[in-house]
Amino acid sequence: HLHAKGKEEKMSKSLKNYITIKDFLKTFSPDVFRFFCLRSSYRSAIDYSDSAMLQAQQLLLGLGSFLEDARAYMKGQLACGSVREAMLWERLSSTKRAVKAALADDFDTPRVVDAILGLTHHGNGQLRASLKEPGGPRSPAVFGAIISYFEQFFETVGISLANQQLANSRAQNQR
């Protein structure tokens, strides 16, 4: 059930405390709503608020930004310091285990999101831009594996991380 944040009653037309899908889509994309839902347990009521939706949107945009940076790194278009490849492989492996365990534990999607955001944080930490001269050792394979895992997971749950949809969400929010 969807609740207006801070209210005990469910959203309903008779109480006039609801938002139509048409109005919602003027501000946020369907992917943002799906991500918002993933951040809550399916067994619990969800507190809806614009700030919660904005937070979901920002997290989703952050994931998209990480994927763009990782792709740029793989193409040699992003110079960064030395990448701790072994650490990222281990983080990817532990994230996969954590996601599988969370899904097996009563479909605990908030834990899944936390695990994915944790891997994103570590990946971003390795992609910090630097003034490094091009031509040093690079580790594109681990970023390719992370991208592949994220795309597969989010496709499975119906969320597109494609740049076009994220750009549309940005444009809609700026209106």
Describe what you observe in this structure.
By secondary structure, this protein is mainly α. The protein has a single domain, classed as Orthogonal Bundle (Isoleucyl-tRNA Synthetase, Domain 1). The protein is 62% helix and 3% strand. It is built from seven helices and two strands; from the N terminus they run βααβααααα. The chain has helices spanning 21-27, 30-38, 50-74, 85-104, 109-126, 140-156, 163-174, and strands at residues 2-4, 46-48. It has a two-stranded parallel sheet with strand order 1-2. The chain is elongated. The mean pLDDT is 87. Residues 7-57 form the tRNA synthetases class I catalytic domain. Pfam families: tRNA-synt_1e.
For the secondary structure, the number of strands is: 2
CATH homologous superfamily name? Isoleucyl-tRNA Synthetase, Domain 1
Shape: elongated
Please report the first level of CATH classification, the CATH class. Answer: Mainly Alpha
Number of domains: 1
Q: Which fold name is given in CATH as the topology?
A: Isoleucyl-tRNA Synthetase, Domain 1
Q: Which secondary-structure class do the elements indicate?
A: mainly alpha
Strand content: under 5%
Distance between the termini: 29 Å
Looking at the overall shape, the CATH architecture is Orthogonal Bundle
Helix count, DSSP H or I runs of 4 or more residues: 7
**Gyration radius from CA atoms, angstroms:** 18 Å
Described by strand count, sense and barrel closure, the largest sheet is: 2 strands, parallel
User: Major sheet: order of its strands?
Assistant: 1-2
SSE string, helix = H, strand = E? EHHEHHHHH
Helix content: 55-70%
GO molecular function: ATP binding; ligase activity
Family: Belongs to the class-I aminoacyl-tRNA synthetase family.
Protein name: CARS2 isoform 26
Organism: Pan troglodytes
